[in-house]
Amino acid sequence: MAEPHRISHDDLLTRIETIFTRAGVRADSAKAVARVIAAGERDNCKSHGIYRIEGCLRVLAAGKVEPDAVPELHDSGTAVIEVDARGGFANPAFYAARQALADRARKTGIAALVIRDCLHFSALWHDVEALAEDGLASLSMCPSYAFVAPAGGKEPLLGTNPIAFGWPRPGAHPYVFDFATSVAARGEIELHRRAGKPIPEGWAVDRDGQPTTDPEVALNGAMLTFGGHKGSAISTMVELLAGAMLGEFMSKEALDFMGGASLLPRHGALILALDPHVFAARSGRDPIAEGEKLLTAIGAQGARLPSERRFAARERALRDGIPLTDAELAQLDRFEAMGLAAVAE
Amino acid sequence: MAEPHRISHDDLLTRIETIFTRAGVRADSAKAVARVIAAGERDNCKSHGIYRIEGCLRVLAAGKVEPDAVPELHDSGTAVIEVDARGGFANPAFYAARQALADRARKTGIAALVIRDCLHFSALWHDVEALAEDGLASLSMCPSYAFVAPAGGKEPLLGTNPIAFGWPRPGAHPYVFDFATSVAARGEIELHRRAGKPIPEGWAVDRDGQPTTDPEVALNGAMLTFGGHKGSAISTMVELLAGAMLGEFMSKEALDFMGGASLLPRHGALILALDPHVFAARSGRDPIAEGEKLLTAIGAQGARLPSERRFAARERALRDGIPLTDAELAQLDRFEAMGLAAVAE
């Protein structure tokens, strides 16, 4: 294998931004979308890195995301702030509301952000990390596409429904987890299918709800949640809180709306932000210092904190540049030169 | 086996209330504690039913819970309401704050209740069911005693850290889940030890962090969370949000404070309440009707919703009475007659 090229994070950011502006996306949105894609690549989350550009361009080409949508902030001064992405990408909507959300959480202790009607393709850790930078704890969740059966069931009703949590740490990367509530990603099953390899037990069921290790049968059946009935319960909660409660799509409706899963999903998202200092005030304790006792003790016994690998990749990338292959660089060139024509059928 | 005796829910409630008032517990607290214990028995949650009376009496006898503590409500009009249990039971503190929490959630969309310094022994579903009756979605969590190792670790740092969620359903029992984030209850490992049976793989590790199926080794080692690193991340979140963030004990400190696990734990608790109608308002949709689409579809494919078994037991109990054995009735008699002397060493 040839030595990969190395590109600086800033250069990659600029290139992705250019791709999206040339594809007709409003400057602010292009910047926000480029930011999360470059961050994914920087953190070696390949599935949320430049790999996502093509998917975004395809939704743009299909006219299923508004390239020039300006997020609309609705803030009536309560603990619930809303931002309507108006059919645009989720990321610019989040950034448009981030300051208001953080300010409100600091004032009232807890605040919620509702993101409406957005094209959602990025990992949730961006949002909870940003809020941790603001000194806030946060919890973020959203539905996706209905590929997952509830525990004991057989028909896909639930999405892979990610859930993310962030907690600020002084002088260190925040405590962040971000995972799908499905036991595996759909892409992993597809990779097994292509390789002609069985999938592990517990990943999926066939159309009759029977366990299967055949990836083809799994893709036509339903995926399962992590953690059995407990994970299924959490995934259902995500549908209710980040779908039904907001009056936005749940995973089944999102799939129906897009007419299949070939395009990235459109739905809403829910982010809760909590100010630990407000919650702890009456105790006289420093909540962040208390949290450190646990987090350092977890590290001290040799257990890995979630996101540790990602943060290590980030440090390497910021120091040495982001490694990209010839094919990846060629694809960036192509997207930059051809715009939406690059993804025309 | 002899036919069990049947006692009505109201009669059982009165008997438990009498036991606690005779044990010196303030009338309002005795009522609140009796209510959750009778409800546990009614729902056939034997581990949270009258089995718990002895544990409560033992903490009272040890002077580790304040029998006459009057919960102190602190409400400064923000989205965070606090109630200080002042070393008393958690349940009267929750009831003292329930109305304020529900009112605030309806006004601001989301509100949090911090319960401080409480003796916590009951299941969390009581609280989320009560809030569902008020038309609110809610999420409740608390630390416990440090018996559980983080994923990849070996020393117990996390509690069994339960998490519960409630969602209102029209004309039906609410959608409620309530589970420990540990893969099994500590009591189940103890039962395996007594029966001389190995525990299933994945329940626990030995002191070196190696998997074990020996219940004795497991009890001296550490339990594991459900769902691998994902469950471990969620359990860590519970420590941070319901321990560190509140300035209340995390599970390790709770264990140190009580000087061992023979008594029920004292710590805080966090409950978030959300008004779906506030969140959905701008969408023009009915969030409860939307939620029904998912919940009825889960039922229609033959999958069981969490708590279904419990609700079925409740319906039987309210119709036919609550079945109790001779031994259980004799124990109620004894506690009623002897008070705290019944649990003297």
Walkthrough of the structure:
The structure is a homodimer of 345-residue chains. Chain A is α+β, with helices and mostly antiparallel strands. The first copy, chain A, has two domains: 1-61 and 307-345, Malate/L-lactate/L-sulpholactate dehydrogenase, four-helix barrel (Hypothetical Oxidoreductase Yiak, Chain: A, domain 1); 71-183 and 224-306, Malate/L-lactate/L-sulpholactate dehydrogenase, NADPH binding domain (Ribosomal Protein S8, Chain: A, domain 1). Chain A is built from 13 helices and twelve strands. The first copy, chain A, has helices at 9-22, 27-42, 51-61, 90-108, 125-133, 186-195, 215-220, 228-242, 251-258, 276-280, 287-300, 308-320, 326-338, and strands spanning 5-7, 72-75, 80-84, 110-119, 137-141, 162-167, 175-180, 204-205, 211-212, 222-223, 266-274, 322-324. In chain A, strands 2-3-4-11-5-6-7 form a seven-stranded mixed beta sheet, with helices on both faces. In chain A, strand 6 and strand 7 (175-180) form a beta hairpin. The relative contact order of chain A is 0.16. The mean pLDDT of chain A is 95. The interface between A and B is large, with 77 and 77 residues.
Estimate the strand proportion of chain A. Answer: 15-25%
Helix-strand category of chain A: alpha+beta
Shape of chain A: globular
Helical fraction of chain A: 40-55%
Give a summary of the structure in a few sentences.
Two copies of one chain form a homodimer. Chain A has 345 residues and is of the alpha+beta class.
